[in-house]
Amino acid sequence: MDVKDFDYELPERLIAQTPLADRTASRLMVVDRVTGQIEHRHFSDVGEYLRPGDCLVLNDTRVIPARILGKKKETGAAIEFVLLKRLNESAVSEVLGTGAPEDDYGDGPVWEVILRPGRRAKEGAEFNFGGILDAKILKVKPDGNRIVRFKCDRPFEEVLETVGAVPLPPYIKEKLDDPERYQTVYARENGSAAAPTAGLHFTDELLDSLRAKGISTAFVTLHVGLGTFRPVKAEKVEDHLMHEEYFEITRESCDLINSCRKNGGRVIAVGTTSTRVLESVAKEDGSLEPFSGSTGIFIYPGYRFKAVDGLITNFHLPKSTLIMLVSAFAGREHVLEAYRTAVAEEYRFFSFGDACLFI
Q1: pTM greater than the 0.70 cutoff
Q2: Topology of the domain comprising 67-165
């Protein structure tokens, strides 16, 4: 399967740079995934397509201030770190192996990071951020990412709130006045470098109205990495190496979702991240068991969905793993036709853009 088969033309002016004042005012394209029929609505209308007994599955991850600016201790040269994934000590030992520089930073947290400019960050290099946070490069990975141990006198999360900023996707060029607009209203589990953007359209009021209608909400956690924005460089879809992300699904959420399915309700995943969690743990009959760990599941056409009956998602980048996932769910031709229609109708694209409901 060719990666170019998931390409489409997108005028740059349709890439949303700022969120709408009202989260629910985004447009909503409703696509019948069997027939491909399209309706044009607003997100505030989403409840009209949900039924009592359905269950919305939402990713409650919270974007951390993962972008930190500092200086190299030796030269004072400027550096930018973007935190990708925190490693536990067993993972640190596995990644470092032998030959790593002396790790004299005690038991400080270890993260995989992207940094710019990379040439200033060899193994053993040390950096300081805001005079309150130190970092040492323990390993340079083959993909250019670094394994870094941090050292500070206060809790790391507290220091990060002082020196860090929320990283925005590379296609957003304008400054975000309110960082909370890049968080879902139900975000609570710190750990993401990017927001699960399908959830940005919900307000507490909308969720309450859906619950009052008999639609339940179950929460999962998947910490989104910046790998979600990386282009697929392989020519064949099957040759792409999918990035891994940490996730959790609790017994409470599993019981709620299993009950929904047992009683004839539909499981509606809010976003590709929620979809990846559900499909990572689902048994052949669609039932779920609690789990925590990493998933590198790569969903593209030919995949048989076991747990998801409907999908709410934003419009995704051309040739991305995300548009491949949506194409697996709704059919590539239906999805590409929906995208061509969205361009013609001047929908807003990507993180701060409009939404689709495939059902």
Answers
A1: yes
A2: Thrombin, subunit H (2.40.10)
